[in-house]
Design a protein that fits this description.
Layout lengths: L1 H40 L4 E12 L16 E12 L2 E5 L20 E4 L4 H6 L10 E3 L5 H4 L9 E5 H7 L21 E4 L3 E2 L6 E5 L8 E7 L3 E5 L7 H6 L9 H18 L2 E3 L4 H6 L3 E2 L1
Parallel strand pairs: 3-5, 5-6, 6-7, 11-12
Antiparallel strand pairs: 1-2, 1-4, 1-13, 2-3, 8-9, 9-10, 10-11
Length: about 290
């Protein structure tokens, strides 16, 4: 009798294990199917990288306080991007003024920078089968002249801009400031003012994030890409990798304490999202970033 009881217990345990195994496999299958459904529902976003020119920083120390980069110079990229989503196309920054195209590199008064631009934005869009009419929305990381140079090609596009940035652009304070060229974006009249972050398409794939300090309404762009994963376009929260490593703030920033706060928020967000950070002005970052990411 005792032997029969042991056999029954073993049989029961075997049955329980089989049921557990089946339940585990069914649960795993359900989870995988649910993940596939969610993945299939997430719109596919494509990021196109373009060159808006180059900036030779002849006085790199402007990008720090004190004498951090005294006597140094550095070649910087001037990237801009097109983000293609099933529900529309967003242009992020536009590069240096197009009057530079076909000209020799130009050094403005003071000699701090030497700037150049090889191609117009129309030619660059055409290289990926787009025209200016295909751009539905435009947003600048900020309105310094090296980011707004080709903006007036898009007068019909909706312009996403922080209220603080818009107010500064229309204030007396901007007049005579050589970092800005308001006439380069004065054709943008379809304005949506932002007071913080903006989920552009409402699905978490393209999010404008407010990170003020470099200018009154500086912002960065977060993308959820299918293959590249979470990706952050830095705007000018940094200008090159050493800036990021040492959390260095340029002396010409609009608000230095606000910049320092935004840097902490940027790094916390990048870490939480496990995001790839693309520093837009970093020449090495620009070179290693594929022309098309998705």
């Amino acid at each position: 009798m005792k032997k029969l009881v042991i056999i029954a217990i073993i049989a029961g345990l075997f049955t329980s294990c089989e049921e557990f195994k089946k339940g585990y496999e069914d649960g795993k299958k359900d989870a995988q199917e649910e993940a596939e459904i969610v993945s299939n529902k997430t719109p596919e976003v494509t990021l196109y990288k373009f060159s808006g020119g180059t900036v030779q920083a002849n006085n790199l120390n402007l990008f720090a306080q004190g004498d951090t980069y005294k006597g140094e110079s550095k070649q910087l990229a001037d990237a801009f991007y097109v983000i293609k989503h099933p529900d529309g196309v967003l242009l992020w920054d536009t590069g240096l003024p197009e009057m530079l195209v076909g000209q020799e590199p130009y050094t403005p008064e003071g000699g701090a920078f030497t700037i150049s631009r090889k191609d117009s934005i129309k030619m660059q869009l055409a290289s990926v089968g787009m025209t200016t009419e295909d751009v539905d929305m435009i947003a600048f990381s900020h309105i310094h002249f090296d980011h707004t140079g080709a903006a007036n090609h898009f007068p019909k596009a909706k312009w996403f801009v922080q209220s603080t940035e818009y107010d500064f652009a229309n204030s007396e304070e901007i007049k005579g400031n050589s970092f800005y060229a308001p006439t380069s974006f004065n054709q943008l009249t379809n304005v949506e003012k932002l007071d913080g972050d903006k989920d552009v398409f409402g699905d978490g794939t393209v999010i404008i994030k407010s990170m003020p300090g470099h200018t009154a309404g500086h912002q960065v762009l977060f993308l959820q890409l299918k293959n590249n994963g979470p990706t952050l376009l830095s705007g000018d929260i940094y200008h090159f990798e050493k800036n990021r490593q040492d959390a260095v703030v340029p002396q010409f920033n609009y608000d230095i304490p606000e910049t320092e706060k935004s840097i902490k928020e940027f790094e916390a967000f990048a870490k939480a999202q496990n995001a790839t950070v693309i520093i837009q002005h970093d020449a090495e970052d620009f070179a290693k970033t594929p022309a098309i990411l998705n």
